[in-house]
């Protein structure tokens, strides 16, 4: 990936730490309410092995409440500025589907746009990515966080997801966005069975010749299947992260950086 004048290698997999500047993330232990807590979390995640930090100000959990653009900017801009000052070498990702939030985040020091909507909710966000020549995470989702779980009627999930990616990659490249990362969107407009179907076919997405990011961290596809709480889903998360890396994933997006880093270290031996 090109990050301004620098290059970031994805030859070896990386860990992306989740930094939720929200009061309502589905995993309550990840909620961060103050700038001091943001910096402490960032320090911990960098120390534990995260090379990318993903900063979000709008919860994307199912049925999440709507947050205004102004509030989302306020939650993320100060966090990005503070983290970049303390940890200038860490790569920062802005987790948003809104073009203005993304623009201000990039101006404040963010390096990557992580868009859960694939440009569906605000198409202007693609122009922001093109203008700033930043990497763009293209996630697969239908609808929005309030409606996505009612839109799981696929005829052929892998085929439809592949067509979605192929079309959007072409459109992004025509706009001048070339560093594109694919996220299958586990938990977004997919049933539990569909989530595991995509995981089992993860390596089949390599025909698109783009790096793959996965985000299973403590999600319902783990804790509902195992009939446990999200707080107890770390072991399941580690197992799915391991499976994804073995299938060629390049970025693990996680709440628990230490354990994900250990997965990468052990698999590299």
Features:
two-stranded antiparallel ribbon, 14% strand, 10 strands, globular, alpha/beta, 41% helix, TIM Barrel, eight-stranded parallel beta sheet
In short:
This protein is α/β, with parallel strands linked by helices. 41% of the residues lie in helices and 14% in strands. It has one domain (13-267): TIM Barrel, CATH 3.20.20.
Largest sheet strand order: 8-7-6-5-4-3-10-9
* Structural class by helix and strand composition: alpha/beta
Which CATH class applies here?
Alpha Beta
Total beta strands: 10
Question: Going by CATH, what is the homologous superfamily?
Answer: Dihydropteroate synthase-like
Helix content: 40-55%
Question: What count of domains describes the coordinates?
Answer: 1
* Poorly predicted spans: none
């Amino acid at each position: 990936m090109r990050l301004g004048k620098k290059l970031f290698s994805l030859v070896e997999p990386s860990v992306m730490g989740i930094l939720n500047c929200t009061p309502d993330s589905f995993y309550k232990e990840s909620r961060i309410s103050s700038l001091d807590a943001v910096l402490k979390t960032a320090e911990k995640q960098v120390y534990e092995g995260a090379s990318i930090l993903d900063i979000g100000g709008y919860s994307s959990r199912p049925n999440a409440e709507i947050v205004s653009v102004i509030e989302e900017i306020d939650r993320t801009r100060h966090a990005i500025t503070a983290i970049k000052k303390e940890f200038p070498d860490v790569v920062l990702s802005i987790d948003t589907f809104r073009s203005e939030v993304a623009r201000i985040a990039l101006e404040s020091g963010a390096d990557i746009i992580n868009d859960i909507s694939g440009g569906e909710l605000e198409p202007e966000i693609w122009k922001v990515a093109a203008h700033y020549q930043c990497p763009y995470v293209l996630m697969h989702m239908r609808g929005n966080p309030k409606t996505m779980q009612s839109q799981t009627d696929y005829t052929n999930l892998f085929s439809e997801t592949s067509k979605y990616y192929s079309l959007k990659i072409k459109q992004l490249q025509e706009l001048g966005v070339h560093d594109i990362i694919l996220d299958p969107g586990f938990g977004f407009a997919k049933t539990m069975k569909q989530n595991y179907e995509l995981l089992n076919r993860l390596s089949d997405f390599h025909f698109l010749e783009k790096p793959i990011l996965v985000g299973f961290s403590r999600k319902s596809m783990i804790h509902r299947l195992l009939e446990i709480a999200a707080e107890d889903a770390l072991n399941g998360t580690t197992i799915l992260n391991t499976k994804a890396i073995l299938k060629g994933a390049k970025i693990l997006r996680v709440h628990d950086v230490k354990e994900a880093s250990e997965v990468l270290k052990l698999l590299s031996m």
